[in-house]
Amino acid sequence: MIGDHTPVPTLGVRDIGSAREFYEGTLGLTPGRDMPGGVEYRAGSGGIFVYESEFAGTNKATAMMFELPEDAFDTQVADLRAKGVAFQTYDLPETQWDDGVATMMDGGFRSVWFEDPDGNIFNLGTGMG
């Protein structure tokens, strides 16, 4: 069954060289195999495939989420800020915002959203597991 296999998010980018700078330098992902038109990255027990596409950044919804343990969240947010990543805010019900960090479900879930250079939207969040 499909549900027995690990999905691999695929993200379109305009320029693979610029994307590599962001994914490797800013996010700290380690590249795996170079593949036709893109590169594979390992992340946790899965992976991400980043490839060149004329439709890069056209998705206006969250493309990918990284679930973090609560004790790692603040460090990761600070690291991204130090690398120049700007966090987005949205009009979400029952959400408190503090300097780009959303707190939801009475403090049970904290989250930030940001974009890669091509406009793909990422989320770092806690409390999902």
Automatic annotation (TrEMBL):
Domain VOC: where? Answer: 2-127
Give the matching InterPro entries. Glyas_Bleomycin-R_OHBP_Dase (IPR029068), Glyas_Fos-R_dOase_dom (IPR004360), VOC_core (IPR037523)
Q: Where are the transmembrane segments?
A: none
Q: Which Gene3D superfamilies match?
A: 2,3-Dihydroxybiphenyl 1,2-Dioxygenase, domain 1
State the organism named in the record: Knoellia aerolata DSM 18566
UniProt protein name: Glyoxalase
